[in-house]
Specification:
Blueprint lengths: L1 H9 L19 H8 L10 H11 L4 E3 L19 E3 L5 E5 L2 E4 L16 H5 L11 H19 L4 E3 L1 E2 L5 H7 L1 H7 L3 H23 L7 E4 L3 E2 L2 E2 L3 H7 L4 H10 L4 E4 L8 H6 L4 E4 L5 H7 L4 E4 L1 E2 H6 L2 H15 L5 E2 L2 E2 L8 H21 L4
Parallel strand pairs: 1-5, 6-7, 7-10, 10-11, 11-12, 12-14, 13-15
Antiparallel strand pairs: 2-3, 3-4, 8-9
């Protein structure tokens, strides 16, 4: 089963007859889910988990990015009316994300339940501790239960990799928003003191996860850049962000749990910094130089580089070219993992997904058969 392939990959024992796969499935449209699984989860919500387990098998998913597969009880939305924003059962705004809703963000703010500081001084004095007060032991108990739910939701279909979303840089972005982050980031001396307070929480979280039985890999996420590149100069990150990574990574490293670092955007300027800090793998988008990664970090877990925009827009010939481009470079790295960056979203048609899967499955097997490393 695919779960075992994921386990072997994380242990450095990849001997599969095809390239391994990590896909993000929760944003797929209802039409595509029904097409591939013969289950309509809107009409049959009690079969929600069954549908996604089948979907994971159809897509040959080995590793799953955090959270497990959707399960019964998760709120489902019918977007067939053309709306793109609705309110959930708690009255909160949700934007369309497959058959689900994602929290409506304000200028990049994920933690909208935390009051946004009204000035730079207020932001720099912000103390996150009252909003994230749990001890390592309290987190460990919570994470142990949540990891078991992840495993249960996936059964043998794939291996879920738990994650921490706000490693360092993403903390002030998630609470302050993009514009305020840009302002407080320029206050170098006071910004360092603020970051120490955020990093303390991340260290508690990685400490707790390092103690959860059975965890075989862990994702640490920070969106460091936009499509065009970093928000600040690269040296700013080295002084204020990357200096904290080793201490955040340390508990997981000590426990022998492989760390897969994840970032959206064009992070070419930071590839060496991320691996120097201790990451065992990288999950990245199509803007990142896959050739550089394969040439310089061939023994790392390299996940991604497939362009979701091409899958959505087509035409079919362009999708074929994109799959060939990515796989022919990636196969040279023994732990390369196929992944559509930015998730397989509801705007990718069933016809395009069918074509993508056909080309990907065929080529991934042909290339492995031709590559001595396998």
């Amino acid at each position: 089963m695919s779960k075992s392939k994921g386990q072997h990959l994380l242990r450095g024992q990849n001997n599969s007859r095809r390239l391994p796969v990590m896909e993000h499935l929760s944003a797929i449209s209802c039409e595509a889910i029904e097409h591939f699984t013969y289950i309509n989860p809107i009409a049959q919500p009690q079969r929600l988990n069954e549908a996604f387990v089948k979907l994971a098998e159809v897509f040959e998913v080995d590793l799953l990015w955090g959270g497990g597969l959707p399960n019964v009880g998760r709120e489902i939305f019918d977007w067939a009316d053309g709306q793109t924003v609705k309110r959930n059962s708690q009255g909160q705004e949700q934007v369309q994300w497959g058959i689900f809703g994602a929290a409506h963000q304000e200028d990049g703010r994920h933690f909208t339940h935390i009051p946004k500081p009204q000035s730079v001084d207020e932001a720099l004095a912000f103390d996150p501790a009252p909003y994230f007060p749990k001890t390592v032991e309290e987190y460990r108990v919570e994470f142990t239960k949540s990891y078991q739910r992840m495993l249960d939701s996936c059964a043998e279909s794939c291996l879920p990799i738990p994650h921490h979303y706000t490693t360092a840089f993403h903390w002030p972005l998630a609470i302050f928003g993009f514009e305020m982050l840009c302002e407080v980031g320029m206050e170098a001396d006071r910004f360092d003191a603020l970051m120490e307070r955020f990093v303390d929480i991340s260290i508690r979280i990685t400490n707790a996860w390092s103690q959860v039985p059975g965890v075989e890999g862990f994702i640490l996420h920070d969106d460091l850049a936009m499509t065009g590149g970093p928000i600040f100069a690269p040296d700013w990150y080295r002084k204020h962000i990357f200096t904290h990574y080793p201490s955040i990574f340390a508990p997981l490293k000590a426990a022998g749990i492989p760390i897969i670092f994840t970032s959206d955007g064009n992070i070419n300027a930071f590839l060496d910094d991320i691996f120097t800090a201790g990451a065992d793998g990288l999950n990245f988008e199509y803007m990142v130089d896959l050739e550089y990664l394969v040439n310089n970090y061939p023994n790392k877990i390299l996940i991604g580089n497939m362009n979701s925009h091409i899958l959505a827009a087509g035409p079919l010939e362009r999708i074929t070219d994109e799959v060939h481009r990515c796989l022919k470079v990636g196969v040279r790295a023994p732990q390369f993992v196929l992944n559509v960056g930015g998730q397989i979203t509801h705007d990718i048609s069933t016809a395009h997904l069918e074509h993508y899967l056909q080309v990907r499955k065929q080529l991934s097997r042909e290339l492995v058969a031709q590559t001595p490393a396998f």
